[in-house]
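Ticket 4471: requesting a sanity check on a complex prediction with nicotinamide-adenine-dinucleotide. Repro inputs:
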Amino acid sequence: MAAMYNKIVILTGAGISAESGIKTFRDADGLWENEPVEAVATPEGFERDPERVIAFYDERRAGLKKAEPNAAHHALVKLEEKFGDNFLLITQNVDDLHQRAGSKRIIPMHGELLKIRCLGPQEHIIPCAENQPKECPECGAKMRPHIVWFGEIPFEMERIQKALTKCDLFAYIGTSGVVYPAAGFRQMAKLSGAHVVCLNLEEVGGGYTDEFIQGKAGEVVPKWVALRVNPVNRGSPSTPQHSSPLSQKQRLF
Ligand code: NAD
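Returned structure tokens:
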């Protein structure tokens, strides 16, 4: 019988999108799509050569159009449907595959490839499906990709921390666990009493992890989700602990 949990936080990384054809970067010696990470994913790189950085993200947008969500993205939507407001998906990915699969309770903590932001005082954020325009259509200021680069603070950290300290199950999927602050989430969840699970191709993360499930995300995530969605006895009706209505106070996020 699978253990039952009430409040679930999931963290995903580039590995969950690998089977959709989007390249990870830790696997290739600090290169991301053959570009040094410092050149294309730091504020200094953008200051030195904005055209190179803009061209890099324009290419990533073009590549994203050809990619489709895979079985792991779809499985996490089922988990969200089951747990509702007691589920939160935090992703380090800048692709939109979780959103296209149907994830709604999601924090893209490192930004979104399909958005750009102006460098004017109002920091207008606008959708961008293809090539980035040079100037903000709202105020004329220069624009940048709406991506959190190394050295910048990820989005919605306060909400993330709150969720990590309240969840009773935390799973990190397809992430090398070396980019902070996300690399510290397992520790925060564990020290707050959560059961911590890692699903990845290779064993990563070191301590603060109770369970490691090895395999491709597209294979292991749907199986793992099936156990969470129907924990008592897969295939037969069940009355999971979390099916009882939770009071507003108990709600997680
Ligand atoms: P990472 O590249 O550092 O690590 C990827 C991890 O996924 C590795 O541990 C690898 O073994 C594992 N992996 C590879 N294929 C897998 C599969 N099929 N199934 C399960 N696991 C698999 O990525 P990261 O930890 O997310 O951190 C790096 C940063 O890269 C993030 O900040 C992110 O913003 C950025 N990034 C994002 C994308 C994207 O949006 N898809 C792509 C590349 C990089």
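Notes from triage: Residues 234-251 have pLDDT under 50 and may be disordered. Leaving this open until the requester confirms.
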